[in-house]
């Protein structure tokens, strides 16, 4: 079984190779994510994934057990990346309106830049969330995300900015819906209506609209003039 190696330099200047199992595992996940996003769970092939990685087919089975295990690991990795990006925003010290604006902008940009994430979520919805339901990792990641929105929303309520009675989970839904659709349906909308929704000008407009719609959804009516 071949394991990916990295080069290390000895004090005398000569180089040796060191095993890098985590690097190999991550390389497999990255390639597999592209294959699953393109071909779905049923259409992706372990042979094809192995051919595009630094690993053998045998090694893939060693790390992940089977194709479903690899798919679940790729799905977990996709969710982990978006949540880690959110964590780096460091919006806790911002005024609630600015924090929410930053969160929507990040989500829009992340989905636009990581189309494989959107396609993998679409694949998982075809499977009715069957594999996602097996993952405590994904559940924990998303509970944290809702917790951040809850904290932000509570601060906006305390300052008299946000209207009462909103569920942070539903706020998350609205943000996700606007940003997800931008990738999932961009091609069909562009073809149907003869307008390039993927152009830089349209993307800038859609991004601004997404922010505006979410802020108008959460703001008290008398605060809308501040937008």
UniProtKB/TrEMBL annotation:
Disordered: annotated segments: 1-24
Record PROSITE patterns: HTH_TETR_2 (PS50977)
GO molecular function: DNA binding
Record keyword tRNA processing present: no
Biased composition (Polar residues): 1-18
Keyword line: DNA-binding
Membrane-spanning parts: none
Record domain HTH tetR-type: where: 22-82
Start-end of DNA-binding region: 45-64
Name this protein carries in UniProt: TetR family transcriptional regulator
Organism whose genome encodes this protein: Devosia limi DSM 17137
